[in-house]
Amino acid sequence: MVHGFLAAEHNIWRSACIAVLLILPALATHAMADPAGDKDCIASAFEILPHPPSISVYDETGRFPRENLVALQRFADEAAKGIWQYLRVNSTRDALIILSDQFRTPYSEGPDTFGRGKIYLPAERYLPDQPERSRLALHHELTHLMAPGKLHGARLLIEGLAVHVEDRIGHPNYPDGDETPDDTVRAIEKKLAFRIPLAQSEAVRLEGPTGEERRLAYAQEGSFVGWLIDTKGPAAFMQAYTCGDPLATEGWNLTDLERDWRSWLYKSRTM
Ligand SMILES: [Zn+2]
Predict the structure, then answer these.
(1) Strand bridging mode 116-122 / 107-109
(2) Are residues 33 and 82 in the same domain?
(3) Ligand 1 centroid to 13 CA: how many Å?
């Protein structure tokens, strides 16, 4: 229990910290050169840090020996560095990875006002001898924490970025393991004999009637973002993604982009 005086003192310190943190984002964005250093990014909802997050691991199950947790931390550090090198954007100061029996699906929370984020990983999926083959979706969840996007930005790009980053630098990916999102889209569309328009992708990803349709939604968002990044360049993509509503960027009309992406996806291929 916290004593009244200590609690009041804590609140003063907390207010001081919040005041400093409100100033920091503006300073940090001025200090950065690329790609989120543009003045428009001052309007971003998140602090932009010039380094990857500091990572800690907590074993909620109490089953894993210390060396297993060290291996997971090392793997997560490498993942965060890889994402940082690829995107050059990070909004999470401290990321706590929790191995848990309680949460069956990997998911992340944050970053909060203090730049802290949490990732819950299902302990049953962790293979200490092969962290990289554990299907923890760690790159996916770290991408959410490091590049949360604008609060009201296009959600399909936020999810697509996480799928794409995991596929590009962190196999196996979610949702389809060693298959690329591009291959997954082609395979499921062929099997189902229909397509989900990108404008409806998020509704299907969240509430699609079958697991296959939800997988298609995830995969097509990843494929689309991968194509956007390769077409526009990582810096231009991250600039639009971090600094504003990407699909409101001039020349980024979703209908036109979807047509060009699909034409690339099926170019010189037969369904
Ligand atoms: Zn996600």
Answers:
(1) antiparallel
(2) yes
(3) 34
Which domain-ending residue is among 71, 100, 134?
A: 134
CA of 232 to the centre of ligand 1 (A): 23
Domain count, the chain: 2
Q: Burial code of 60-88, b = ≥16 C-beta within 10 A, e = fewer? A: eeeebeeebbebbeebbebbbebbbebbb
- Specify if 18 maps to a domain: yes
User: What pLDDT digit, counting tens, does each position of 106-162 carry?
Assistant: 899 999 989 999 999 999 999 999 988 888 999 999 999 999 876 556 789 999 999
139 CA distance to ligand 1 middle (Å): 10
- Residue 28's domain comprises 5-134
Is residue 258, in this structure, part of any structural domain at all? yes
CA 52 / ligand 1 centre spacing (Å)? 19
Does 149 reside within a domain? no
DSSP per-residue codes, 189-224: HHHHT----HHHHHHHHHH-SSHHHHHHHHHHHHHH
113 and 167 assigned to the same domain:
no
Contacts of 266 (CB under 8 A, 6+ apart): 186
User: pTM for the full model?
Assistant: 0.82
Q: Ligand 1 centroid to 169 CA: how many Å?
A: 16
CA of 269 relative to ligand 1 center, distance in Å:
29
Is residue 134 within 8 Å of 72, Cβ to Cβ?
no
Residue 182 near residue 205 (C-beta atoms within 8 A): no
- Rounded CA separation 206/215 (Å): 10
Among 68, 241, 82, residue whose Cα is nearest residue 148: 241
